[in-house]
């Protein structure tokens, strides 16, 4: 097998075509993937029955979230919103409430708006082609390609972290995660692959599955791989070290001080701003700061003395949030504009982030949170992957 690692003389310059080797014999690659997939595929709820709407929901959920967590949430969400119209017509707060436990709530808003756009512009039928799909809110090239290929059989490419890793190893191409040039190369190769596939959706799902379960980041199980004989990374002995990890961005630390105040009417909650982290969701009243704040100062701000009862750290993609949880140490209601009471038994029906649930739980409020509901249950682990288009 010969794989070029630099463009040949006369080949297009970088910028017109991404540099990097062409994977040889792609018809054989796709044939082997398609033959392997039926016996290797995990049983996942969105695979039991295919529709554009089910794929739309599951692919949005799977962006940046582990399969095991989506498995826990998908059926409930579909029971709550069984049709695209039921989702499109629902108030946003109900969609956010049903999204609880999945995190990254921006995706729930995008899903809601995508459903409305499909209702209004496509007669409530999920469009079949990549261009129409990619024009919808929250749907990038990866998600559009996944839906178009898996549900509608179109020859549409996909590249996420798993696919980039599989293709890079197959070509023994030393890529780096998050490198735009590597992603351009992977999109080119993925496009070439689906163009020769007899069932592009099966080829794509097999690629995802291989990356998640066999061609894993640290210890690939090459002995179980249907592409082992064609894999240049395996032949060179470099597979496990390709691709190199992404350069990590510096993460900012911020300090949030949250007051949990409960009386017979329920827990006091405020709405977060319409933009930014957990936009529009509810939370216990919280004072945000770049530095930790003194308990006395917090008490003065809220108009009543408070005690600190817990601290925990919540890490998001760009920030480390250091939470301090406080409760009031005297009778009365704190002075907080726009706050409202939500009875404990209705908490599950409002939109609270995982962090807000944890704040409430830390204060000892007797609620069954989505966090405690899923704690201790572990679905099989697989490599997690993020689309390269988000
Ligand atoms: N990750 C993203 N899309 C997926 C899918 N359809 N099946 C399994 N994992 C995925």
Descriptive overview:
The chain has helices at residues 26-40, 52-62, 67-80, 84-89, 92-98, 106-121, 130-134, 141-150, 161-171, 180-196, 200-213, 232-236, 295-302, 354-362, 370-374, and strands at residues 252-260, 262-263, 266-271, 282-283, 286-289, 306-315, 319-328, 340-342. With 390 residues, the chain is α+β, with helices and mostly antiparallel strands. It has a four-stranded mixed sheet with strand order 5-1-7-6. Helix 1 (26-40) crosses helix 11 and helix 2 (52-62) packs antiparallel against helix 6.
Order of helices and strands: HHHHHHHHHHHHEEEEEHEEEHH
Would you count the extended β strands for me?
Answer: 8
Average of pLDDT: 90
Query: Which cofactors or ions or other ligands sit in this model?
Result: adenine
Quaternary class? single chain
Q: Strands of the biggest beta sheet: in what spatial order?
A: 5-1-7-6
Percent of residues in beta strands? 5-15%
Count of discrete alpha- or pi-helical segments spanning 4 or more residues: 15
Structural class: alpha+beta
Cα separation of the termini: 35 Å
- Cα gyration radius (Å): 24 Å
Residue runs with pLDDT of under 50 for 5 or more positions: 1-15, 373-381
Overall shape: elongated
